[in-house]
Write a structure and sequence with these properties.
Order of helices and strands: EEEEHEHHEHHHEEEEEEEHEEHHHH
CATH class of the largest domain: Alpha Beta
Strand content: 15-25%
Structural class: alpha/beta
CATH topology of the largest domain: Metallo-beta-lactamase, Chain A
Number of strands: 15
Shape: globular
Radius of gyration: 18 Å
Amino acid sequence: MPVQKINDAIFLIDLKPADFENFIASYVLKGEKTAIIETGPTLTVPNLLKGLEEINVKPDEIDFVMVSHIHLDHGGGAGTLLEHLPNAKLIVHPRGIPHLENPQTLWVQARKALGKIVDFYGKPQPIPKDRMIPAENNMQLDLGDEIRIQIIETLGHASHHISFFEKSNKILFPGDTAGIYIRSLDVIVPTTPPLLVLHMILDSIEKLKKLEPKKLCYTHFGLADDALRKLDTYANQLKLWASIIKQGLKNGENLERIRERIIEEDSAVRKALPYIKNHPIMSRGIILQNIEGFIAYFKKFQK
């Protein structure tokens, strides 16, 4: 299922990194103008271009590309993609612009943090500064045909994170601010890389709830109903992890023991564990990486 029709104006393209389905999505919004939300990584750009062809969108018809943040799985492919889209501008948080203009540091940091996972993603290519538009909180983008996008600054997962709200249909594109959604299980799993800033992401979730979205379009992965409940679920999950990890640190527990306690106490993670173990990317230590994100937060903000 490389392409899914969300409604008459919005389409999901499964980017299929390393041919693995249902992990990274791009969304195409078609009004009088056309926009793409999330490019995915460099190595999946050919799949995105094939998806555009499938929905009869020509590369020169794309006006805007928007990325929630510049991590490789969300915006790493932006430079390569823009080489194929002659008329498109990239909308990105202003803190992300220098790193996309010269992505060498981004690549080095990603390789250090992710290890061999970057081999699924590929190296980001530089983007000319004049092809990028700095996003502002509450920026409005009217694509015509009643497709109106509001940009919301949603910090916490990253210092350069934004989310997108399609106002007419009340569909929210939260990037990583709402976690990872495993559709087949209807569960959410945290994504909290070092440095997670817990109080900021909880504030960001509250900001998104005030929009009263009806549906969520997750980058990881897909369409979900009951948006407000899922945002609440994720906020409560983050609070649960924070409590477990903080108590574990107080008790002198090692990472593996903290991981065991999270699996014991978080029913969603427990339900998702077989899926995670068989996933080519998530199986490479996502739970421990998430724990390290919380630990980095406690060390920096709660000394």
